[in-house]
Records
---
Amino acid sequence: MVRAVSVHTYHGTAGKEGLMAPRVYVTRVIPRAGVDRLQQAGFDVDVNEGDVPLRQDDLVEKARSYDALVTLLTDRVDRRVLEAAASADLKIVANVAVGYDNVDVAAATDLGIPVTNTPGVLTETTADFAWALLMSVARRVPEAEQFFRAGKYHGWGILMLLGEDVHGKTLGIAGFGRIGQAVARRAAGFDVKILYYDPVLGPDVGKPFGAQHVELDTLLRESDFVSVHVPLTPETRHLISTQQLQLMKPTAYLINTSRGPVVDEGALVEALRAGIIKGAALDVFENEPLAHPGLLELTNVVLTPHIASASRETRDRMATTAADNAIAALQGRRPPNLVNPEVWTERK
Ligand code: GLV
């Protein structure tokens, strides 16, 4: 497939007086606030207005031609891209996402290229959405809505579309970082018991939330809702697979707003089909934009297209945060959200 790349240039002012302004390439449309921020800092900003991911060869070419790249989670910033970037002394890869599994950070570090993410600004919005999914699947909201629209509501029935209570249940949070904690904070009004598993953070972190630190197996065995909030790393790939699903209650639900490959989608489909667990709500998938075809056939799942952080305010903040990181690097200051800080130390 041939994909046309339509680029729009926003001229900055840093290049006046005969000097070239540093050039930033934004690999795909981002909220205007981010582009404005870069332009106001004086940089020339080229935006791929096509709003489809660049082909890998094009990304390599951009890495070789610009001073900074603002990337999205749909870009695969691999060693080849980074080698091209290093050969041209690219100053930063500023990823517009908190997750950065799309960037080969080890290669970037080897090559001395700073990589940044956008932590903090999407925490609350993502936690809101994890709860939205949890409520949706437990109370069958999308199914009920489809039922209504399909003209199937011919009169109230006491057994119609029965779901499960959320209040009073046990919520298991796998990964108790910023987003996991924000999910826990929201649980107070639902009077749920909170368990959490975190391979790094210990029992003290959960105390302010009344949350109990447990091993993953215990969390899976005891929770009615399991919400996943770990980053995707080699260690967390397929953290939830057949063996883990089998530990869960047949009445339990799995919610994933982290990264698709944290859950073994094939194993999940099998577990849902076999009634090993009751349902799932997924915002992320192993091979986005595709979902395992088995998921589409099931009614006990809620599927959304990776929108957990998709509020207007948050997407603006993600774009301006990435812009601020790029601006800092281009001005020779340490970017606020470096994920490979060792690179900066070396540079100083
Ligand atoms: C979204 O998935 C993000 O990592 O910010």
Note: The pocket of glyoxylic acid is lined by residues 73, 97-99, 122, 309 (CB under 6 Å).
---
Amino acid sequence: MHLTKVYKQHVAVNDINLKIKAGRMTAILGPNGAGKSTLIKLLIGQLTPTAGTVEMNRTRQPGVVFQGSVLDDALTVEENLRLRAQQYRDVPKQRVAELRVQLGLTSFFHQRYGTLSEGQKRRVDIARALLNHPEILFLDEPTTGLDIQTRTVIWQLLHDLQQREGLTIVLTTHYLDEADTADNVYIMTNGRVCSHGSAAEIKQRYGRPQLVLTVAPNAQPTVLATLVQTEFHVTGNQVICLPTDMASAIQILTICQPNLLDFEYRPSSLNDAFMALTGKELT
Ligand code: ADP
Ligand code: MG
């Protein structure tokens, strides 16, 4: 560990320590240029670290899905997978059929890869990476460029693989909302890990829930006078409070109730946490 990768002058990965838990899903989050792809390439041994080492207990080669596909547009899904299966020594005959069912490829199995939708292509790419039954699967931004529904489908598929097959999954993403339930999250900026934990822990540590109060204009001074212990700001007839926790949000609501027209409680998100950590929004 203590992984570092320097490209000429640029430090792309700066002294990173990472523990991948077997059978779990690890999400590496960060904006473009954070060093995510470089880190993945170091982990799979495609790049040699400038400093540090990677220790991995494994017997089979890891499965890898990169952003650009390696499959042939002119061949069907089945032809692509069969051809790739031959490149391994010990892929059993039924493995392609198994993956067809597991990844839901049946309806487009005999269609040419080049004619598939992006979401379908991604599923075939994942099937290809699983041909030799790897214990660990690395995916670099598997959901980038997909619409939100398709992203959800791919994410669910990966969760299922992790839970049902006990597959260890390491993936990168710049969509913070995707990692919202992940139990092992690393947030990366500028080549460094700036936070690590479960999504819930990170949100609790850095995110702040918001309580948005809509109050009648003449009641605003009364409401503001009660917010002595709470950070807030005012926009129009809305008072946006940053209570420290849910209990204090309930307290604020109780006190202000007679003067409220409406309210909204927004639990803290990974995006809030990211903003608190880096001072900028991830887009
Ligand atoms: P991410 O995947 O998070 O977008 P990358 O790992 O691709 O980030 O890149 C991290 C940084 O390293 C970027 O500033 C990028 O420009 C730089 N970089 C990536 N690959 C190379 C390379 N082969 N040579 C020089 N610089 C590179
Ligand atoms: Mg990348």
Note: The chain has a mean pLDDT of 89.
